[in-house]
């Protein structure tokens, strides 16, 4: 299949956490979505090969030569970001040509997706996963200015439990669009701009989720506060704090 034509197409298909696959050539894990898919196979951003292997890989969707070089740079860059900000997890970046190849000046329109996933060990009392999908378009304008449009979705699953059988399970997602115009020097500077925007967007979405879920647990657990004694109130506050810690730990 060819890459989807819009961010809305992808977002309509990612209503559940991203899946992980291993690149047989490099031994590295990567994330799968419809943008690196051909039939039942998925292209690795590390080797540029599809797994499971397909009969005629040359006919499967691949980025152009110049864009593939930029894709490799993007994966190396976001792998550093993932390690710094997630302290674990998996990242994958996929790029695709819009109409023509990207030239060395980076002056041709292209698009891509940044995928990030972090999980908390399901064997512990606190378990959860954070999946973020950033679909972006780069549209160079006049001079050395480019428009960057990103549609970002975060999918959060979080559960906490204790010995008193007071368990909490939360699941949901947020989607936001961001647009910005910035100057660029070459094709690599597009990745730097996208990286800065993703960092800012993820910080905002994390804070929003924390506020939303803290408020939700407060509403659910606090409806009977006027009839509860101080010990129960303290217990509710502790459970709310556990939820916030779970989000911060992803």
Give your account of this protein's structure.
The protein is of the alpha+beta class. The chain has a single domain, classed as F-actin capping protein, beta subunit (Aspartate Aminotransferase, domain 1), CATH 3.90.1150. 33% of the residues lie in helices and 32% in strands. It is built from 4 helices and 10 strands. The chain has helices at 7-11, 65-86, 187-222, 230-248, and strands at 19-22, 29-32, 37-38, 41-43, 50-51, 90-97, 110-120, 126-140, 145-160, 168-183. α2 (65-86) runs parallel beside α3 and α3 packs antiparallel against α4 (230-248). The protein is globular and about 55 Å long. The chain starts with 6 loop residues before the first helix and ends with a helix.
Continuous helix count: 4
- Spatial gap, N to C terminus: 33 Å
Low-confidence stretches: 220-228
Structure class: alpha+beta
Give the helix proportion (percent range). 25-40%
- For this structure, what is the CATH homologous superfamily? F-actin capping protein, beta subunit
Alpha carbon gyration radius: 21 Å
The percentage of residues in β strands lies in 25-35%
Query: What is the CATH architecture descriptor?
Result: Alpha-Beta Complex
**CATH topology annotation:** Aspartate Aminotransferase, domain 1
Please state the average pLDDT score: 80
Pfam family, one: F_actin_cap_B
Family: Belongs to the F-actin-capping protein beta subunit family.
InterPro entries: CapZ_alpha/beta, CapZ_alpha/beta_2, CAPZB, CAPZB_N, F-actin_capping_bsu_CS
Keywords: Actin capping, Actin-binding, Cytoplasm, Cytoskeleton
